[in-house]
Design goal:
One of its GO terms (cellular component) is cytoplasm. Helix content is 37%, strand content 16%. It binds pyridoxal-5'-phosphate. The site of pyridoxal-5'-phosphate has 16 residues, from helix 5.
């Protein structure tokens, strides 16, 4: 029988991954084979609410027909030319996305980590050619507990021991400061004339959904401007409507005029996108910047065989259209308020949940137990049994990030599942 036609049980699929796959993840033991909107199904046919959305890549919902149609249609026409030749769709996508996010130019890549690497390279080249920093002296400021991906350079400035240990030697040129500490940023900028950029997540997702204090990003941007330092926003997880606005930084992006629900904060000099830029259908990432910055990149300086391929371009355009057509930012904003207020009500009398936090539909609960305890994992196992998939981060934090196409009724159903499950642990 052809390999793809075999019907596997969950246990068989898990055993195969364990035996033949590298053990670089520790998944919840559920084996999915179908998704639609806010739902996924396992191989035994059990239906679940997806409350992770592939780490916020599936904001537009699983297998969104408009995105799938764009992908299939482009896949039947032309899939890859490399950038050795032009194709007739990349330019259209670049114009569409540049206007959508209000930047002059876009540099297309595939994964989030590649886009972060790209932003770091652009920043360094800008430092030497525009800011006038001496060769090899540029520094980029990053935050403690950051998550920006898994390449050797990116893990060089991580402070997660599991992500770093025995992967040295590490890349130089980064200074780490405390997140959400404007004083720390001010000091580092005043004392280091060689700082070229400040790389920041508008909300720290992987760290456990840490929302900075009101005004932090705007103040950080103002400090960067004062010291001629590029403000680089990694919105790979927070972008594309996840936090109740098109972008969590949301400067003068176009959504302001359409369905933006929050107060605009800042416009980054360099914007990094990935994950939901494709609605989870395909690996698509991008770096956006204006000409004075992006024009430091010339032929041969940077590239990617698959970056900006026709399928990626078609998929990303469709995925961004869905965000606007279906007012996903507005929906994430409304449902986020409802979700937090419902869980907050629960937390007030709970011994299990100590904190509820987040923005839009990027939320987390902190379990009243230490990081080494199994409680959060056990809660996620019970949530799975009850028909909802979520995953702990950092041991005692559970992130809740459903697709943004959820309805109010579905969300309340999910709140009922979550609170019922938590009650079993009181
Ligand atoms: C997921 C993520 C990345 C890395 O994206 P990959 O596609 O996994 O390489 C980078 N930054 C942030 C904030 C992310 O959440």
């Amino acid at each position: 029988m052809a390999v793809l036609e075999q019907q596997l049980t969950s246990q068989q699929a898990i055993d195969l991954e364990n035996k033949y796959g590298a053990h670089n993840y520790h998944p919840l033991p559920v084996v999915l084979n179908r998704g639609e909107g806010v739902y996924v199904w396992d191989v035994e046919g059990k239906k679940y609410y997806d409350f992770l959305s592939a780490y916020s890549a599936v904001n537009q919902g699983h297998c969104h027909p408009k995105i799938v149609d764009a992908m299939v249609s482009q896949a039947k026409t032309l899939t890859l030319t490399s950038r050795a030749f032009y194709n007739d769709i990349l330019g259209r996508y670049e114009k569409f996305a540049a206007e959508y996010f209000n930047f002059d130019k876009l540099l297309p890549m595939n994964t989030g980590a590649e886009a972060v690497e790209t932003a770091l390279k652009i920043c360094r080249k800008w430092a030497y050619e525009k800011k006038g920093i001496a060769e090899n002296e540029a520094e980029i400021v990053v935050c403690e507990n950051n998550f920006h991906g898994r390449t050797t350079t990116i893990i060089s400035f991580s402070n997660d021991p599991v992500a770093r240990k025995n992967f040295g030697p590490y890349t130089d040129g980064f200074i780490k400061i405390e997140y959400d500490n404007i004083q720390a940023l001010q000091e580092v900028l005043e004392n280091n004339p060689n700082v070229a950029g400040f790389l920041v997540e508008p909300i720290q997702g992987e760290a456990g959904v840490f929302v900075p204090s009101e005004g932090y990003l705007a103040k950080a941007k103002a400090l960067c401007e004062k010291h001629n330092v590029l403000f680089i926003a990694d919105e790979v997880q927070t972008g594309i409507a996840r936090t109740g606005r098109l972008l969590a930084t949301c400067g003068n992006c176009t959504c302001e005029k359409k369905d933006c629900s929050g107060t605009p904060e800042v416009k980054p000099d360099v914007l990094i996108l990935g994950k939901a830029l494709s609605g989870g259908a395909y690996p698509v990432s991008a770096v956006l910047a204006n000409d004075d910055i992006m024009n430091v990149i010339g032929p041969g300086n940077h590239g990617s065989t698959f970056g900006g391929n026709p399928v990626a371009a078609a998929v990303a355009m469709a995925a961004l259209e869905v965000v606007t057509d279906e007012s996903l930012a507005e929906n994430a904003f409304q449902l986020g308020e409802l979700f937090r207020s419902e869980l907050q009500k629960y937390a007030e009398t709970s011994n299990v949940v100590s904190i509820v936090r987040g923005k839009g539909l990027l939320n987390a609960i902190v379990i009243n137990d230490d990081e080494e305890s199994e409680t959060a994992w056990n809660i996620c196992m019970k949530l799975k049994e009850n028909g909802l998939l979520a995953k702990p981060t950092h041991g005692n934090i559970i992130r809740f990030a459903p697709p943004l196409v959820m309805t109010r009724e579905q969300l309340l159903d999910c709140v009922a599942i979550i609170t019922k499950t938590l009650k079993g642990f009181e």
